[in-house]
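[audit] Reproducing an earlier prediction to check determinism. Same input, same settings, fresh worker. If the tokens differ from the archived copy the diff job will pick it up downstream; this log only records the rerun itself.
[audit] input (202 residues):
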Amino acid sequence: MKFGGTSVGKPERMHQVAELITKDAEPKIVVLSALSGTTNSLVSIGDAMAAGQRDAAKEQIEKLEAHYQTFIRDLLKTDAALEKAKRIISEHFEFLTIILKISFSEALSKDILAQGELLSTKLFSVYLEEKGIDHAYLPALEFMSIDIHDEPQVPAIRTKLMPILEQMKGKKLFITQGYICRNARGEVDNLKRVVAIIQLRW
């Protein structure tokens, strides 16, 4: 099941997604996009860095982080879950702050864009944990890959993914990221076209 940015763009929408994916006991891989508006913000941060406007990039990073801090306060209820979510946000925004000191490159821009999907899936996973919903977090960067022509490497994806699922045998709900992958050089990249459906059995 795939949910775009609007579907997870507000805390109440995430709550609705959780209800939808747990309506039955069928095994599911749930793919989430970044929260609506996040990718555009990350693109703007990258553009500012590319133009040498570090102060502008820093201001946008701080604004986006503040949005996430507000988001989790409406998403989560318990102190334990909120603390875990805050650590996740801190980790990713510390990364964005650190790269302000690094020379901008195309590879770095892909790392910046990947933060959106990583944040949305990790925060959603914390919410499911808070609700007592059994699931597994499935990092797309461990199995999703594209070749030198930017096409999904379907056999390679299957080869990498099936052992991961086997290790999580007994789980029926998996949360993973859309959009992000690794390219033929092993660098973080993104999917540029519609990805073929990979049929799996587990």
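[audit] rerun output stored. Observation attached for the diff report: Residues 194-198 have pLDDT under 50 and may be disordered.
[audit] end
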